[in-house]
């Protein structure tokens, strides 16, 4: 299936196809698992891989180039690590200074790819979609790549299986000569109400808009310049002025933030006269809500989908997930029950689309659970909040082998570290101290300090903080190998 040169696509001669993965958004309808600090694409929800990993591996299975990933800076180390975990070492990770919607993100990727090969075909995908039948996807991709080579802006339209109101629709037009399996787009339709969705299903000729696009880099940039010249200019400048940050490409903030906030549908797809669609039935889903995961999951005899330590008695047609504690459910039908370490969601399955309303309420109430987990991931490892009280907080910290925290100090808190596994090298003021298992060290308020792991196994320690203010913003960094400033 692979052509003669690296990244060439067997279905379309020597055409270079570059997967472009958009990793933005918080996936709030999948709260409390998906949150801004660790959204749904980084979770294993359907397979042994995360949604991001599954997405990236689709390109690897066709021998394509390593992906271009567009994301925000906060998630850069999570993305790099998850890609490395599945053998993808050299992904190009482009960092947005702020989210400006899909059109600027795709334009940034197109500019970066076009620097080396303007004729390369971009295969644009969200990081959080599911595909059940990849062989059928590959057939559809063959058709889409051929159409993209001919100058079309191609999207995949999914054959609807129900009157879905959560997706936009595409009205399928006439076949395009000499491009088998490819049709003109008659029009794009916004998310319909239930009556319209039922009418579309009954009438036929309407497809779900998957949000995946296949287009030559130069074609996309030409269409952006034609329809959104301000976006073209600002993103081009942001790419030209980008800086290399370790393995990441950081777009120029001043330029990029001037870009219009607009989706690719509004910017190009609905306006271009070269819009084409490839219909498909390969089990696509945007994994947007808990009822969708119930639809996709392996059901028991009573129609239940479970994950984790779950005990059910007289329960049917329900989705129950726990990521730690035992979840025992009795005598219910059609519920969603999701338990994490710090939050529990109970909802009627037919109201799963409305979970985002709860998240908005939590944000209004300034509840930390709206955006963050007790487990927080950092480039060196992770930490977990165990308990807190008046003027104290306890965390578990895990540092991967060879990694180190920043050289830092705090104005408002002292810290006491107890190593429970591994060996830590601690910088405290002008001294360096080896701290082994069952040993501890005290770091007075205002002391310059650093924790690093010189060994071959993770270092796990318990940190006890004490002081009048314990916020994460009480960190003054003097040196950091990960180029963080805050």
From TrEMBL:
Domain MannoseP isomerase/GMP-like beta-helix residue range list: 309-362
Alphabetical list of InterPro entries matching this protein: GMPP_N, Man1P_GuaTrfase/Man6P_Isoase, Man6P_isomerase-2_C, ManC/GMP-like_b-helix, Mannose-6P_isomerase_type2, NTP_transferase_dom, Nucleotide-diphossugar_trans, RmlC-like_jellyroll
Reactions it catalyzes: alpha-D-mannose 1-phosphate + GTP + H(+) = GDP-alpha-D-mannose + diphosphate
Protein name: mannose-1-phosphate guanylyltransferase
EC number: 2.7.7.13
Domain Nucleotidyl transferase: 19-302
Enzyme superclass (EC): transferase
SUPFAM superfamilies in the cross-refs: Nucleotide-diphospho-sugar transferases, RmlC-like cupins
Keyword tags: GTP-binding, Isomerase, Nucleotide-binding, Nucleotidyltransferase, Transferase
Family indicated by similarity: Belongs to the mannose-6-phosphate isomerase type 2 family.
Provenance organism: Acetobacter ghanensis
Domain named Mannose-6-phosphate isomerase type II C-terminal: residues: 368-480
A biological-process GO annotation: GDP-mannose biosynthetic process
GO terms, molecular function: GTP binding; isomerase activity; mannose-1-phosphate guanylyltransferase (GTP) activity
NCBIfam families membership: GMP_PMI
Coiled coil: none
Source superkingdom: Bacteria
